[in-house]
Amino acid sequence: MRKRLVLAGGGHAHLFTLSRLGVFDDAGIDVVCVAPGPFLAYSGMGPGMLSGRYALEDLRFDIEAMLSAGARHTRGASRFPPARANGAFGHVFVQGRVTGIDPEGKGLVLEDGRELAYDVASFGLGSVVDAPFPVAGEGVRTVKPIENLLAARCAIESRVEAGEAVRVVVAGGGASAFEVAGNALGLLAGLGVTKPLVTVVAGRGLLPGWPARARRLAHASLTYRGAKVLCDRVERFDGGRVMLVGGGSLSCDMLLVATGTRPPGVFARSGLTLSPDGGLSVNAFLQSPLYPDIFGGGDCVHFAPKPLPRAGVYAVRQGPVLCANLLARLTGRNLTPFRRTGTDYLALLNCGDGRAILRQGPLVLEGRWCMALKDWIDRRFIRSFGPPRPPRKSGRPA
User: Which residues pair with 5 in a beta bridge?
Assistant: First the structure.
């Protein structure tokens, strides 16, 4: 009797499992991945897509193709009617969004009412932007999903090509907000705009918690190219104006929201142990403490032994351990603890002008070689989970 592993979400924490489907085949395990779409966009390259350095196809993983490549046999129809399926032995992609979890009955509910039974389930749903103000409406884009940055780029290009001014406001002061602001400047420079109207509403300032040198470099990178940085917060966006908590307002044609992230709301009312912000709480084995057949990794989980920042590096680090533990749980073997919780990892921020800021522990550097290093690391990461790609020239100079 074959068992079924359901991967809820094609997030970064699940990439390693999706690339090792042969070992699940050999153990008699069917792998089903359910996600809103067949592609996963790599967040680390998203800001570069805004500036035109990358195309969408440069930075996404083909989840459905990974499942197809991992299926080595064929048989009849699957045991449930998926919206998309590769028809291959055991490994199926289901297009849909998980909206309900029944840990007692070991099933997931999709937004269209379909139900998926599992023997073991793993959640790699990523995170959503935690905006303290409404983000619906024309001219507002959150930085997640990453594809929003492509839509923002197209909207900005259309306005510039029509001869219209584009007043861009970035809400947030963290790493994502800095990269988005820098790459908005890069986009405008590439379009021939010599006096960009870009304002960053950065709360307590740029890169809080980073070394002072990194904060100075980030501030200089933006202001040297014409951006303004305000220590304030956005209260709301109303009729082409951004209203600030401090009482001021800004004219705005495009509001890009990068105000931090939180787990998606799917875990509410599930009966699972959650963190205060609604993330799935997991133990050292990336496993739910109450329901041992539920696992998870990345931004949607709360690592109870040592709360971790929401950074893609942890999802990637968790991938091999999560894969091993999913297989171990399904085959009755011992689980492996996740130990790579250090915070001194290499961080590289794309400034949007062909340069990057590098930080590792207290070390902070900046330059074009840092961006070359980031580009090499990112492209190698993309290649490691997909078929070889022909080299592509950037649509715009770095």
Answer: 31, 120
Predicted TM-score (pTM) of this structure: 0.91
Laid out side by side, the sheet with 234-238 consists of 234-238, 241-244, 249-251
Q: Contact at 8 Å (CB) between 123 and 103? A: no
As given in the structure block, the two tokens for residue 359 are: 């930080």
Rounded Cα–Cα distance for residues 325 and 338 (Å): 10
pLDDT digits (tens, 9 = 90+) for 268-309: 989 999 999 999 999 999 999 999 999 999 999 999 999 999
- Between CA 204 and CA 209, with CA 205 as vertex, the angle to 5 degrees is 85
For domain 130-259, the CATH class is alpha beta
Integer Cα distance of 253 and 375 in angstroms: 30
pLDDT of residue 394: 47
Give how far the C-alpha of residue 186 lies from the chain's centroid of Cα atoms, to the nearest Å: 22
Burial of residue 265 (CB within 10 Å: 0-12, 13-18, 19+) is: exposed
Q: Where are the domains of the chain?
A: 3-127+263-331, 130-259
Query: Given the structure tokens 């401090």, which residue do they identify?
Result: 246
- Burial of residue 337 (number of CB atoms within 10 Å: 0-12, 13-18, 19+): exposed
Q: Which parts of 208-335 fold into alpha helices (H)?
A: 212-224, 312-331
pLDDT value at residue 78 = 39
Three-class SS of residue 74?
strand
pLDDT in tens, 233-244: 999 999 899 999
Q: Do domains 3-127+263-331 and 130-259 have the same CATH topology?
A: yes
CATH number for region 3-127+263-331: 3.50.50.60
Contact yes or no for 370/348 (Cβ under 8 A): yes
pLDDT digits (tens, 9 = 90+) for 78-97: 333 333 333 334 789 999 99
Encoded amino acid at 2, one letter:
R
Rounded mean pLDDT, 15-32: 95
